[in-house]
Amino acid sequence: MMEEKQTKDVFILAIESSCDETAAAVVKNGREVLSNVISSQIDLHTLYGGVVPEIASRKHVEKINQVIQAALDEAGMTLDDMTAIGVTYGPGLVGALLVGVSAAKAIAYAKKLPLVGVHHIEGHVCANFIAHPDLEPPFLCLIVSGGHTHLVMMEDYGEFSIIGKTRDDAAGEAFDKVARAVGLGYPGGPKVDKEAKLGNPNAIAFPRAHVEGAPYDFSFSGLKSATLNYINHAAMMGQEINRPDLVASFQNAVVDALVSRAVAAAKEYGVDKVVMAGGVAANSALRAKLSEECEKNGLKSYYPSPILCTDNAAMIGAAAYYEYCKGVRSGWDLNAVPNLKLGER
Length: 345
Description:
The protein is α/β, with parallel strands linked by helices. 43% of the residues lie in helices and 19% in strands. It has helices at residues 42-46, 53-75, 94-111, 120-131, 171-181, 188-196, 221-236, 243-269, 284-296, 306-309, 314-325, and strands at residues 11-16, 21-28, 32-40, 84-90, 115-119, 139-144, 149-156, 159-165, 273-277, 300-302. A 5-stranded mixed sheet has the order 3-2-1-4-5, with helices on both faces. Strand 1 and strand 2 form a beta hairpin. The longest helix has 27 residues, at 243-269. The chain is globular, with a radius of gyration of 20 Å. 50% of the residues are buried. The mean pLDDT is 93.
């Protein structure tokens, strides 16, 4: 286990702008959130049925300074009180990322503060350190978002190995596509979750894909296609679809695939903690199923509060703290890396 050699408090000003939230936070010692300010663009992008990169970038430019100042004010601190600046540099939309990276570099340079670039997905994992101050590695983590579906073993802070990932669609991507197909619109995940509460999750037997030779990999394209085929067949036959039953059954198939692999992997790798991270970790059915299956199998389950599942800067501050403690520093050449893979630095 990494030993933290910090003798005094470490205050990280963290900045996150990877997609359509402009966010800043002040985090103390990696676990205590002193402020967490998020300016969301959801209403703006809902008009277009999804995030428009150019609009997102322009909005970040408008909001970034206001959000940073609001985070400092809420914490009752100034830039002079900060130990380091943490910022998301990938993955994400390149124009959106550049706004946050540029702001972080400017502040770090002007105030002569260390700069720490953070992998966005590692930030999602670290949201659990804020939500559960007693949580420590090693643990198994299920990462589920619009762009990622991974099973990873977190051996130590910032050290992990990927043991499974999706071969096609990410879970959140499948949610969005099905939501669009049934007329629920954007953002798909929360709307499917809400509608599914009104339906029967066992009404339709949708398939659960298994990847030959890779028991912990995921595949959601077949499930997505089966759901869309069901909708199209009903339309051709002039049949009315029970939308709550349809989305509840689809969601049940996704949840089943995610939880069954996470629990099986935890048992095989000999860890008793299963952690969940990412935007889809806010899904109520997924949280309930993970808790239930972990309890049945003598495992502990962890997931952040819904506000920490969505993109936010507090999680970036937590991740930056552990990188800072290990001596990781980014240079002035830090750049946005839109396709940054998990495990790459």
